[in-house]
Protein 1
Amino acid sequence: MTEADINWPQALRAAENSAAVGGLRGVVLDGLRIALRDRSDVGEAQLEDFAQESLVRVLDRLDQFAGRSKFTTWAHSIAVNTAFTELRRKRYQDVSLDALTADGDQLAEATVMPDHASDGDEERARVVAALRRAIAEKLSPKQRSVIAGELQELPFDQIVELLGSNRNAAYKLAHDARRALKAHLAAEGISSEVVRNAFSV
Amino acid sequence: MKPLTTEQVQGFVRMVELTRDRELDCTECRSLFAESAEKQLAGLPMDEALALVRQHLSLCPECNEEFLALEEILRGSR
């Protein structure tokens, strides 16, 4: 029987599921080896840990598998999230909530988002100036903090932790902020076409 | 806060421009990863769900990183 022939949800729910659990663990581990083969900082022991943690999560979420893909693809997606979330923690920077809030407060300042960043192009400078005004006038302090964190390439999970929020609420905060900024550009007569042409979007 | 680089400002403007009223959040997007990656790899036409996934990936580097890894696994497993 090949991997594709196995009814994984049924096999994993069976009273005697040790063969299925072991088989899936091997599938997940092989996938992680492929996904992380270029990461010299990840050794076999850590891959095994990721596979084990992923397996626990897959078993916990069996009822969420809706059958819209192969079961193993779904399990790989959980494994990738498990491994990358943990690896991103290593990229956490030493930033406090106070510092992130202060960064957000400074975001609209020309010293932080300078005109020279627009390469002297008049249209680009107009867009950047409008964005600075919108950041100052249209965003809440928390929205500015999220945007400041994203711009400094903090891992989003770290921004979420600093804000004491959850990932989806923080994403909504960022999404609402981007929408407000985009609406402000439109209100100032800066169309999508102008932005796309000026910044080669 | 340190002054933003040209690349950071340009990336920010790009993110604002690519913003849509309806976007998936990270959890919604990841719940569609498996079927989207399979469809993409099979070269099936882009449906609404895949379009929303791609839109989220264009704005979320972390989800994008994970989606690319999943595609890599599927390619490597074939």
Protein 2
Amino acid sequence: MASDFPRGVSIVGLGLTDVGKVYGRTPNDFAAEAVRLAVAEAGLTLSDVDGLLITDGLGDQASIFLQRDLNLRDIPLMMNVGTWGTAPGVMLETAAMAISTGQASTVVCVMGSAPMRDPNLPAGASFANATNSKTGWSGMKDANGGSPGINLMAMMARRHMNQYGWERDALGHIAVSTREWALKNPVAQMKKSMTMDDYLASRWVAEPFRVPDCCVVTNGGVAFVVTSTERAKDLAQPPVPLLGISSVNPGFFERRHEDYGLVSGAAVAGPQALKMAGVSLEEIDAVQIYDCFTFAVLITLEDLGFAKKGEGADFVSSGVLGPNGTFPLNTGGGLLSAWYFTGFGPIYEAVTQARGTAGERQLAKSDLILATNNGGSLDQHTSMVFGSSAAA
Amino acid sequence: MSSFIYGEVVRDATTAFFFDGTARDEFAIFLCDDCGQHSGPQEIQCPHCGSPSLTPAAASGDATLVSWIVLHERDRDDPAAVFRKPVAVGQLSEGPWWWATLVGADPDALREGDPLRIDYVDVAHGERLPVFRPAGPRVT
């Protein structure tokens, strides 16, 4: 891929509905509201939109019927991107390509999700109900403990622990520091502080993971608008340019693989995205990592190069994380403590920080932000580098 | 002792040969007609050479522990109690990896490389399922 591929494309609008235990609305209802919010925030109208990229939510699926719901007619770009956690990164990559080639000029990327249908069911059970099946190989996988996602990632975490010899309590430093950031984000679902003692007293779900090692479960919708940076200069928000993006999909899919649980796609995609952006790791001001589970943060920090392979646990335990630390990571409270719309979380927070509108949690310097998306159990990966408006 | 809970699995056209095997305590894998290597029963082509020409073969049932998790699940007979249920990825002696519940093991004494053996459990309203059991002392 040409190293200057995404230049000239910016995120110019964000939309986020009410998130959390919001009942009685369909994924498309949430998604349509998120699109309207994002388009309006950008200073655009729906009639400006000529690209709509959708990704499935959980439970009742958001779908390409969203085009009909929004009454968008004759648009040249419309598709459902189905790469799970990396879908938002892939949508951004697709939007950038479409804008670069002239296929579309204003692309909205959106997700609506409503895995929680019953207020009387625990969130985790709702999530599992939305993903489990009984029939054939997928039923076999579920019966054998191969789902839900927590089991897949916990299995990888254990292999990493065995290989590199670290204690599972290291994951607590990620959960606790991310919660500290969430307390500075007014829309984060988790409102209660959590100490390391709280973490260690929390309930096990699938050892080595406890409840706080898992992301929250969210009903709601989120969207962002992508257009050319040239056009962005006339719009309502400071544009946040995409400086580099790389997708590398290892595709373990739970089969035998020597790198299973030990290396993620970030090991290749991270350096590629940085190279495309023309920046070094040392220049990065903040990192927004896809934290479906705490372990995903640990392994991605290693693969991006912030810690040596096998030393991620030492890095996260060294006191550098959290609002009082020296390493700004998942500053919005992440998927662990804020809200979970797959890879939208890291992108949304990267844009918010790059704009300088993160309120109480705003970093003093946020000119270059590295964000990642993972899909499946580290089967897919997308790394992205965003610049500040000054770089646009 | 707490009885583990197993999900019911319903057979379909792609899994019928596998569950025909488990019904007679046989674990079916595939042997590639072209390269002669083994692959898991859920493959649609050989992961080694790409050939779609696969023939079912019975695995030996021997495996070694690759990784594991310990699920905390509600006891079926005592909903207030929680029991710890290990789930393992084992490498079959023929090569493929397989996920299954690990029965009869101390979850705190597991080590990578522990020898395992495939066994089977009957599940009400579902197919007979393969599980792993510890197969004696670890070979170091």
Protein 3
Amino acid sequence: MATRRKADFYCLGLESTADFFSVGILSFNGEVLANEISMFMPETGGIHPREAARHHAEVAGKVLAEALRKAGIRPHEIKMIAFSQGSGLGPCLRTGATAARALASYLQVQLVGVNHCVAHIEIGKLITGAKDPLTLYISGGNTIVAAFEAGCCRVFGETLDIAVGNCLDVFAREAGLRQKIDAPFGALIEKLAARSQNFVFLPYTVKGMDLSFSGLLTAAIELLHGGKYRLEDLCYSLQEVAFSMLTEVTERALAHTEKLELLLTGGVAANKRLQFMLETIAKEHNARFCVVPKRYALDNGVMIAGTGILAYQHGISTPIEKSFIKLKWRLDEVYAPWVGG
Amino acid sequence: MLLKKGAEASLFLEEWQGRRVIMKRRLPKAYRLSTLDETIRGQRTVHEPQIIHRAKEAGVPTPTIYLVNIANANIIMEFIEGEQVKQVLNDLSQANRKSLCLHIGALIGRLHSHGIVHGDLTTSNMILTSHGKVFFVDFGLSERSNELEARGVDLHLMKRALQSTHYWYAKECFEVVMAGYSEVVGKDVAEDVLNKIREIERRGRYVSER
């Protein structure tokens, strides 16, 4: 940070799509100055959008101040504000968008609305050095196999119902597990799974390059409540089936697109067993395997800032009167002129 | 001789019992647990010839299955000599193109009215022989279903395959495919399926190449 030139431009990115509120500060030449994250963690149950939004509103000031402090810059040094405009949970997105509008008008700088999914891919490229990867983006809300082709992002495969992270989370909750900041449900399941080698068959649903996890979840929960199997065995089997499905569709997309890089990102990307499976197929197809490190694979403000900068440099900005959130803003509807093709 | 390597199976052209045959091999996947892998490959190896056989009963030309080896997940089947519809469609005269599409639509109609959805209706999975017969191949993703949703998805895939590979004639071709389809399944069903396709398009889920 000491080598930073004073002449740098900075972008502040706000992320508030779901249970994370995060502020990232990135310089225009790609240096990360701050990446502050506050996670909403309910005592019981899943993410209630209104409760999560209340959390975001409560912590926004503190997270913002801390990010600026860590970055060592003053607010007026910020050149532009980027925010996640969609897709996501309405109340959460609205909270972030409100903060972004307020900041942009107060500082009198440009505002740029960013697509959350594109941001995950772009930060992955920036951090791992991948140029033109096939991306598997898996989290609590998304399960997508995508790549940039001919100047726009194309979704080759995706879940037809719930996301894989959602499937794992709901199962963990049903099993009475309790997550903590440093031990989310996915990590708890991975740990339990490592203690078993007793495979129990569960429904395996792949439709071409699309997937479905709802039947798998229902079956796993039924076996859990049936009491016949140990929790370790069910965690193990759930992981094996869900990850094999993911790997199969990823391989199909890799064979189809002939991309030479495979990028893994999102909250579920941290799982070692899944990383191993994907690495196996990447090797078979002569593709470089890139895993985005956890702090950039989870929802974060830096990815929003990074994508905001790309958009800004290509003449895209979002006037305040057009900065409505887009709840269902699909990855393949994003105008991304910074991608060649 | 390896003809084609897909993500799930490889196709080999081989000599078997004095015939030229296609050997479809579903090779083990190192990333999957072997118990799971064997089950999946086994199920698909059993499922595909069954559907191919049912398609034949429905009056849709498909390769004859000679041997199914469940243990090795191999299928030996008739080698259909001809050209992929994908390769010839663009070069046909308008009249010939129309009659081919009408015929393809009728074949899809026969599959659907016998409770089969193909699951991968692209012009590369249809082979035109020198006698003018059209064979449907690759039933690896097919399923038994009478649901409108499944039929809609099936034909929507056909539409997209036409749009991506046969850009200039896509609209005309698809209309004729649907006309041929309608002749077999009847106007009412065809209308329902068309509406379903519009609904699927509106969902915006299948906007890109897959």
Protein 4
Amino acid sequence: MKYSLDFAALLDYWPVFLNGAWLTLKMTAVAVVVGVAVGTLVAFAKRSRYRLLSRACSAYIEVVRNTPFLVQIFLLYFGLASVGVRMPTFAAAVLAMIINIAAYAAEIIRAGLEAVPRGQIEAAECLGLSKWRIGWHVMLQPAIEKVYPALTGQFLLMMQASAMASQISAEELTAIANTVQSTTFRSLETYIVVAGLYLALSLIIKFATGLLGEYLFRRRRVLRKAAARSARLMVEPGQAKVASHGGAA
Amino acid sequence: MFGSFTLTHLLYLFTSIGWTLVLSALAFALGALGGFGVLLARISPRPWLRWLAVVYIECIQGIPLLILLFIVYFGLSVYGFQLPSLVAAGLAMMVYVSAYLGDIWRGCVEAMPKPQWEAAECLAFSRWQTLRLVIIPQAVRLSLPPTVGFLVQIIKMTSLASVIGFVELTRAGQIINNSIFQPFLIFSIVGAFYFALCYPLSRWSEAMENKLNVANR
């Protein structure tokens, strides 16, 4: 059988596709914001002195990280429905995403918290800062700054994982693709278009998180500017240029 | 009325773990092969090849595996290849896994100190000899923890093959659920099986990472 790609059949559907992309973006944004907030709490709770609490947090993190997202969605949606808790598919999907990303975010932020030198916390204590201010200024902010790339990488993966929400027929890009392909019978073209849209979404998220990072971490910006300035000063005398090329034999 | 969960169901779920493992192994083997190719292209001295690898990695990492699965599954079928779902899933996962493994391994190869390359060059090693005899043996040690960590991801990813009808653990759970409708129980068991597969690997990866960190200290 000879088959040729025909994207013209999908031209009428572009508002539908854009709507799907918007829904996916919205879902991801809500899940990421709430998920990171919950994840931060879990990360602090895991460090707590109360053994029971920290054990419970470890168990939550490990269980979520070692089971597939698809199974989590099924458990949440069908499982809860079978015991009488019914919720709209979109809410169930977002809830599953929050539970999922909170565990990953908690693990990432915990790594960041552990990288904060003990001396800095002690110094803050000596300065008489309150517990909350130490937690916010001395621990959380530098920790987030350190793990920001890992965190945003997780956001991208979450955006991709949201495609699985189509399996409980939550309204998002993949679910919409499934409807479009079943009315146009142009399955391959539909999924190629959707792949392109996901790619565009991930580029948008990468760009947005990059900008946000630039805005949030003033210290990093200042440091980089200073480094650039000193590098310019160093290179100008001409001698430094030779030195920097010395290694590339 | 719906039946109840019996030992037969449990046994059915248990045997379907085998297919999950088969697909994981297939995806890892193919993905490792592809990933090695991506790695070689990514660190190649030819700029256009490097550039191609970057575009490949960026594109694949921006597309959900589910969509890749659909593209491979439907794409091949409209061109007249009716492939079994195992092959379609294996191919889609190969594409996906190779982009990630290639990127992970590139990081490990680039972590090797530059003088190693230079020393090999001084000994008149060819590029391939340098990679094979000097760089890769050292990079493998570094790459083990993230690779095992990614293996966990692969096992979890195989659950997506259920969507195109490949009967592995998740699909088996769905089939049983369709007949007796006890989603809470069934998907808890399915989740527990996945956990039993993934948790040891996660711990192993973590332990190896800690060991490497101590060695570096």
